[in-house]
Amino acid sequence: MINKRLVLASSSPRRVALLKSLGLHFDIVPHTIEEYIPGDALPGELAMQLAYVKAEDVAKKEKNAIIIAADTVVLHGKDILGKPKDIRDAKRILSMLSNSDHDVVSGVCIMDTPSKRKVLRISRTQIKMKLISEEEIVAYIKSGEPMDKAGAYAIQGEGRKFVKHINGSLSNVVGLPLELVQEMLNDFTKN
């Protein structure tokens, strides 16, 4: 039983819809940090660190709440792929993912204020993409859908047509691993 206000540290429509699907009542207080990907970062650590920084940012404004923050990165080989910078970058990312495997890694931070007690965890989902033609990539980019998505595709949208196989949490790929969030909230409220 959660006896404090729940706050989602994101205005992402995908994260909001996913969290609502758990039947939770929460407020939306977007973080104000600039997301970044340092060159030497390990994907799980990076996603957890960014989730933590987002939670910390919102915790400064929310004095009596449980903050839920998340960050998602796409890992292709040793390359960490964030959101495309522009159309050219979206094309590069989608061409890279075509006919290959990649991992979607999300870091989740749940933090209590004012105690700053926190739980950090990661979720990893493996994706196999089909061969995507250059024409398909161009048409998909014209739709605008890939421009604000890590890995330049939305599995919950038109991007699902490029996915051949998924192993793991679908909600993780959309942007918030619900199974993990529910487990973390349960553990968090027990202690």
Architecture overview:
This protein is α/β, with parallel strands linked by helices and 191 residues long. It has a single domain (5-190), classed as Maf protein, CATH 3.90.950.10. It is 34% helix and 26% strand. It contains six helices and seven strands, in the order E-H-E-H-E-E-H-E-E-H-E-H-H. It has helices at residues 13-20, 43-59, 87-97, 134-143, 170-174, 178-190, and strands at 5-8, 27-28, 65-76, 79-81, 101-112, 118-129, 163-167. Helix 3 packs across helix 4. The radius of gyration is 17 Å and the shape is elongated. The relative contact order is 0.18. The model has no long low-confidence stretch (mean pLDDT 91).
What can be said about this structure in brief?
This protein is α/β, with parallel strands linked by helices. The protein has helices spanning 13-20, 43-59, 87-97, 134-143, 170-174, 178-190, and strands at residues 5-8, 27-28, 65-76, 79-81, 101-112, 118-129, 163-167. Helix 3 (87-97) packs across helix 4 (134-143).
What attributes does this structure have?
191 residues; Maf protein; 6 helices; 7 strands; 34% helix; 26% strand; elongated
